[in-house]
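Q: My labmate handed me this sequence with no annotations at all. I'd like to see what the chain might look like in three dimensions before we decide whether it's worth expressing. Could you predict it?
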Amino acid sequence: MKTILTGIRPTGNLHVGHFFGAVQNWKSLQGQYEFYLEIADVQALTDHFHDPEMVRKNVYELTIDLLSCGINPSQVTFFIQSKIPEIAELTVFYSNLVTMSRLYRNPTIKTEISQKKAIFGEKGESVTYGFVGYPVSQAADITAFSGELVPVGEDQLPLLEQCREIVRKFNSIYGDTLIEPSHLLTTTPRVKGLDGAEKMGKSLGNAIFLNDSEDVISKKIMGAVTDTKKIKKDDPADPEVCMVYYYHKLMKNENLETVCQECRQGKRGCVACKRELIEKMLAFLKPIQEKQAYFHEHPEEVEKILEEGTNKASLKAKDTMIRVRKSMKIDY
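A: Here is what I predict for the chain of 332 residues:
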C-alpha cells in the first residue's frame, strides 16, 4: 500500500469544522493506505512555546477526539512528533536547502506573518525563526516516513509544494534518496462559523466543539447568524445566507427540502429552525461524546495507542535516516 502522512497540531479540542473538513476524509482513507497520523506537538510550540503544559495536555485530548470520531488505531498509526528525533535531524539538514526569501514568499507564511504584524506592529518582532521555518519542519515530517500522498485542502498546497522543492533539491545534490510526495486533495471546503465567517476557528468564538455540553451547544446555535432581512416570524427569508440552514445541510437533515421551502415562504420561524438544528447536532455528537467519556475513563488505552504507534513510526523514520546519512556521507 502507498504511504499517507498527515498531521494535526494539539492546540485544543476538535470542533465540527475539523470533523467535516479533515477527520471525515481521514476516516474514508484508513485501511486503504499505510497511514501515519502525527500529533504535531513540536509545531504547536511554534505558536504556544510559552504554554508547554497546554500542548502536553492537548496531545491526549486530541488523540481522544480522533479516536472518538472513528479513527481506528489498527488502521492508522498515531505518533507524537517530539518522540521522533529523526524529524528534528531532517529539519536541520533541510534548512540548508531553503533560503529565507523563499520561506517568506510562501503564501501561507506570508498571510500568517501579515496577521501577526497587524497585531504586534509593522516590524513583526513576534515572528520567530521556528514559525517562519514551519514548511521546512513539515517537509521533514512527510519525508521521514516516505510519505507518498498527503491529504490537504487547497490552502495547504503551497506548503506541500515547498516540500516537493526540498526533496528535488536534496536528490539533485545527494542522489535519489527521498520520495517526492503528491497531494491528495480533499473536496470538502472549509466549514463556516456560526457567525458566518468563512472559517470555523478555535479562537474565533464561532465553533461548536465536539465535547460541548447540551447547554453550550443550544446557546451557540440560538445565537447563530440568520438572514438579517427577516424581521418577523412569518417574513420570507433566504436560506442561502443563513448559518442555521447551512448547518442543516452539513448535518444532512432528511427534511432539508422542507426547511428550505418553509424558510422561503415565511412558514418557518428562526427559533423553531434553530431548535430543530440543536436536536440534529446533539444526535450527531452523542456517539462521539460517549466514546470521549469512555477514553477519559480509560487513559491507559490512549497511552498504549500512542506508545505503540510512536514505536512503529520510529522504526520507519530510522530506516529513512540510514538512507539519508549514507547519501550525505555522514554515516560514520
